């Protein structure tokens, strides 16, 4: 007779069998996943379909490797200037928006210069007598005899000469330009060079003389070329220093003509450092003022300096 063993004694329980099945299934799934991962790695090595991450998609780990951002360009503020010839100016106004130009010719207005401009014939005679008396006093103070033959007419001659040296106080830009601005569509450089200049040093009341070179690049409108020396002469016939004289001429042309740019260079000899002081007879002083495109563009500025002969010296 055949005996069968009890299921409870010789065989695993139902829960153990189910657990082993579950563990076997999970093991197969893990091995299957590992197989797929190997396939992907192999595919990447063979260059079939693996996609690499871009090396520049994320910033570098070291902040010092990061490129510096490009600086932002500052916008240049531009101001529109209306030419005197085209502007509707109130007849009662004597000053323009520029601190340099005055319609009555007084770039540095004072009570004395205005009185001289508006004086009557009787006031002019009184002024002349006062100046003659002042010169006579100077002659006496330096030890001279004002009544000797050679000095009898010197006070009057000197008074008239000083009024001529400073006649620029009685002139104005509006009358000098006199509407001589023409729309010619020209935009190339215009230069008037070697303009002779005679002015009076305001520090010692002795002359300084030299030459001035004026250049501008029109914005379609041109000015009569004789007006440039006339403007320079007006500012020179005042008590001046060379630095201010150069700047005043440049600003005056910039305002009345509104060109693309203006350049003024002046070279002169000052008798205040030739006849006295350091007494250097061979020295000269050069000043310049560049506005607009001459200031912004080195190539344009160098072309002007080359044409007037400064770069060749």
TrEMBL record:
It comes from Diplogelasinospora grovesii. Its EC number is 3.5.4.16. Gene3D superfamilies: 1.10.286.10, 3.30.1130.10. It holds the Pfam family GTP_cyclohydroI. GO terms for molecular function: GTP binding; GTP cyclohydrolase I activity; zinc ion binding. Residues 1-123 are annotated as: Disordered. Pathway: Cofactor biosynthesis; 7,8-dihydroneopterin triphosphate biosynthesis; 7,8-dihydroneopterin triphosphate from GTP: step 1/1. This is GTP cyclohydrolase 1. Belongs to the GTP cyclohydrolase I family. One of its GO terms (cellular component) is cytoplasm.
